[in-house]
């Protein structure tokens, strides 16, 4: 098993993918491919709050997934750091707090970010990347 993941692993993996641009929401990065976001760090919002204090989480990261099935696989395990909120019902993404990223391995985070890029990249770009990495389509 690889080491525990860090937020830097999310940034590094997103930036390592081809054709990535970085937009900003204030100081927070939004990683995009072909003008489509695939990972973004969001500002505190009322839909993600600490259940004990009611304070808005200030470290939520949104990561695209390929399908509802992929999303459910990540959020149904209560021990998992991945979650969703009603605001994201029907949206192909999962949320994770930066403070909990270390609960998964670096390999898992790398795969998740790569899959997020694949979910948002054009078919041609995705097929090229998969072929170059001998992963097939």
Can you describe what's shown?
With 137 residues, this protein is α+β, with helices and mostly antiparallel strands. The model has no long low-confidence stretch (mean pLDDT 94). Strands 1-2-3-4-6-5 form a six-stranded antiparallel beta sheet. The chain has a single domain, classed as Aspartate Aminotransferase, domain 1 (Alpha-Beta Complex). It contains four helices and six strands, in the order H-E-E-E-E-H-E-E-H-H. A hairpin with a 2-residue loop joins strand 2 (28-33) and strand 3 (36-41). It has helices spanning 7-16, 68-75, 106-120, 123-132; strands spanning 20-25, 28-33, 36-41, 60-64, 82-83, 93-97. Helix content is 31%, strand content 22%.
CATH class bucket: Alpha Beta
Radius of gyration computed on alpha carbons: 15 Å
Helical residue percent band: 25-40%
Major sheet size, sense and barrel closure: 6 strands, antiparallel
Read across the widest sheet, the strand sequence of neighbours is: 1-2-3-4-6-5
Order of helices and strands: HEEEEHEEHH
Distance between the termini: 26 Å
Poorly predicted residue ranges: none
For the secondary structure, the number of strands is 6
Briefly note the structural class of the backbone. alpha+beta
Task: State which percent range the strand residues make up.
Answer: 15-25%
**Individual helix count:** 4
Average of per-residue pLDDT values: 94
Shape verdict: globular
CATH fold assignment: Aspartate Aminotransferase, domain 1
Number of domains: 1
What is the CATH architecture term? Alpha-Beta Complex
């Amino acid at each position: 098993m690889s080491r525990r993941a860090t937020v830097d692993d999310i940034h590094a993996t997103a930036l390592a993918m081809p054709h990535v641009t970085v937009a900003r929401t204030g100081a927070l990065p939004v990683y995009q491919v072909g003008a489509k976001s695939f990972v973004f760090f969001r500002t505190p919002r009322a839909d993600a709050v600490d259940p004990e204090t009611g304070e808005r989480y200030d470290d939520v990261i949104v990561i695209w997934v390929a399908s509802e099935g992929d999303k459910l696989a990540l959020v149904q395990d209560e021990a998992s750091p991945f979650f969703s909120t009603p605001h994201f019902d029907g949206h192909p993404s999962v949320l994770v707090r930066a403070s909990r990223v270390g609960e998964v391995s670096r390999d898992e985070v790398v795969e998740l970010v790569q899959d997020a890029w694949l979910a948002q990249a054009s078919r041609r770009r995705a097929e090229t990347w998969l072929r170059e990495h001998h992963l097939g389509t």
